[in-house]
Amino acid sequence: QAQLVESGGGLVQAGGSMRLSCAPAGRPDRNYVMGWFRQAPGKEREFVASIGAGGDTTLYADSVKGRFTISRDNGKRTVSLQMNNLKPEDTAVYYCAADVNPGAWTPIASERIYDDWGQGTQVTVSS
Q1: Taking 90 as the threshold, does the pLDDT of residue 71 lie above it?
Q2: pLDDT tens across 94-104, in order?
């Protein structure tokens, strides 16, 4: 299993950019399918982006497509989420998640597939 640690959250003005990172606390023996989710106050957690274990396939929610980019460094086992042109509605706690199943390879949006989750990092976009 992966213990995940997010970093990079904070406060930014609308139109600005922010980069989130997710790193395993240990040293996983392989790359996992990774995802980013977010939860705004009073709302359910929702899918943001996912990247396959090989790093060559990605999946995005329509609300962030064209503004957010998920990427990974397979050597370091880290995953990043570059967020550009941020909007107030992007304000949420952002969570990193890993699908640690051995056969997992392609990105996936379904929250229930992911096994391990980070503690979350707050992103606040002011108008």
Answers
A1: yes
A2: 999 999 898 89
d(CA 34, CA 28): 13
Q: Is the dihedral of CA 50, 88, 11, 82 positive or negative?
A: positive
CA distance 83 to 86: 7
Phi, psi of 41 (to 5 degrees): -55, 130
Q: Which residues contact 29 (CB under 8 A, 6 or more apart)?
A: none
**At CA 97, angle to CA 93 and CA 98, rounded to 5?**
175
37, β-bridge pairs: 47, 95
3 state SS of 111? helix
